[in-house]
Design a protein that fits this description.
29% of the residues are buried. The chain has a four-stranded parallel beta sheet with strand order 2-1-3-4. The longest helix has 22 residues. The protein has a single domain, classed as Rhodanese-like domain (Oxidized Rhodanese, domain 1, 3-Layer(aba) Sandwich), CATH 3.40.250.10. With 113 residues, it is of the alpha/beta class. It is globular, with a radius of gyration of 13 Å. It is built from five helices and four strands, in the order H-E-H-E-H-E-H-E-H. 49% of the residues lie in helices and 16% in strands.
């Protein structure tokens, strides 16, 4: 029961907050787009300007990211990106946006071009 509540809470939080945060981005060239899907998922389809750091390797590979630059995390459904946001926050990152899905980021990038 608790797991269901947590998953539902994460999905509601993601859908309400990330769009607002994404819309507030002024300069997409100063954002780190991090695709937290698996390497195979990333190789099959990826977005321009995105870096692949699978969620299960995020603690180890977070050194590739700049803590002073906003990070936008995303995956297929938004679940792994929600986990990634928690991990990055625990590692000291402050500016993290959970965009949820690849499709959300794709729409956002298209709207900004």
């Amino acid at each position: 029961m608790l797991i269901i509540i947590v998953v539902v809470t994460i999905k509601i939080y993601r859908s309400k907050v990330s769009k607002k945060e994404m819309d507030a981005i002024e300069d997409i060239d100063t954002i780190q787009f991090v695709d937290v899907r698996s390497k195979n998922e990333f190789l099959a389809y990826s977005l321009p300007k995105s870096t692949n750091i699978p969620v299960n390797a995020l603690k180890r590979e977070s050194i590739k990211l700049n803590k002073n630059v906003p990070v936008v995390v995303f995956c297929v459904t938004g679940t792994r990106s929600a986990i990634a946001k928690v991990i990055l926050r625990a590692l000291g990152f402050e500016k993290i946006i959970n965009a949820g899905t690849v499709r959300n980021v794709q729409k956002y990038l298209k709207s900004r071009s």
